[in-house]
Amino acid sequence: MATSLLDLFRVLSAFSPKRVDLKDAPWEPYVDWAIGQGLAPLAAYNLEYRLGLCGAPQWARDRLLSIYQGSANDNVMKLVNFKRAVDELEGRRIVLVGAASFAECLYPHIAWRPVIDVRLLVPPGDVDPFVSWLRRAEFKAAADAPAPSGERVLSDSRTTLYVHGTLMKDPAHDQAMIARALRLKVYGPSMLRLDLEDALLTHVTLMSRAGFDVPMLEFLDLRELVLGAPSMGGDYSREPKAEVVLERAKQFGVERALWAALGVVERLFPETEAAVARLRPALSLPAREVLNRLVVAPLSEVGRTDEFRGEEALRTLLAGG
């Protein structure tokens, strides 16, 4: 049986792929799609260092490898530059959210997870002082970058920073997340990362606010959060506490968004089935059917190139908890 696009995606997005014969795989549609979805660096590493003579054409290996090398250099530049901007800041609680945190705590190699921007959560009263501090490192307001949730957007022409004073609807939930956050000493004494359960729910929340029009790479992030970062040995390398995830999902009003995102992860990565079953909220049958049809099924289609546009009714459904 010929290798399908889904098969190829699963092999090349695995952290420990099994050696398989991929000479009959659909390389032309995969390569362009993978680059656009942020998957190329991990795919390139697997082809070069894990899968050996698997039958991949040389042109595909070369193209993916060029993206891998660029991703490695870009990530190092952005994260070192960010560290220089914040590592002397003391006495604050600044939480690193999303890609910049995930690249270090979920992925065994920092090049595997491209970091497009850096997101931070701070107490509302610290937004302006923190922005003023960042100006010392030549970060200035980025007028051309969208700020749909009222966050401050800064750039030094190389790295874009999003500074959030709030993420959840209820500011008390943001305060609780900041209080629970874990030390992230590599970036300085004021830097933190969300605990595992908050990281998982915040990731789902931001995905749903984007109408799930996000790169496939973000579902790899969610896969590793759901599984408890089994390839690592850090703060997130444990099983998420199901009772905590479910209770906080209810408090945050993201039960439907969580259900939909977990459904996509389970379809894409069958190894997550047991973990997803523990974390999946209980929803009514009509809500499950709508989410399956409008979110889970289309987002689980590997190779899809059309933009996913959440209808207003779907956004309302997701926001309704």
Question: Keywords for this structure?
Answer:
single chain, 321 residues, alpha/beta, seven-stranded mixed beta sheet, 14 helices, 7 strands, 7% strand, globular
Structural account:
It is a single chain. This protein has 321 residues and is an alpha/beta fold. It has a domain at 196-321. Helices cover 51% and strands 7% of the residues. The protein is built from 14 helices and 7 strands. The protein has a 7-stranded mixed β-sheet, sandwiched between helices. Strand 6 and strand 7 (191-193) form a beta hairpin. Helix 2 (27-36) packs parallel to helix 4 (58-86), helix 3 crosses helix 4 and helix 9 packs across helix 11. The protein starts with a helix and ends with a helix. The model has no long low-confidence stretch (mean pLDDT 92).
SSE-based structural type: alpha/beta
- Placed side by side, the strands forming the largest sheet appear as 3-4-5-2-1-7-6
| Radius of gyration of CA atoms, rounded to a whole number | 20 Å
Q: Helix and strand string, N-terminal first?
A: HHHHEHEHEEEHEEHHHHHHH
The largest sheet, given as strand count, sense and whether it forms a barrel, is: 7 strands, mixed
Number of strands: 7
Overall, the morphology is globular
Report the average pLDDT across residues. Answer: 92
| Proportion of residues in helical segments | 40-55%
β-strand amount: 5-15%
Number of helices: 14
Termini separation: 42 Å
Q: Poorly predicted ranges (pLDDT <50, ≥5 residues)?
A: none
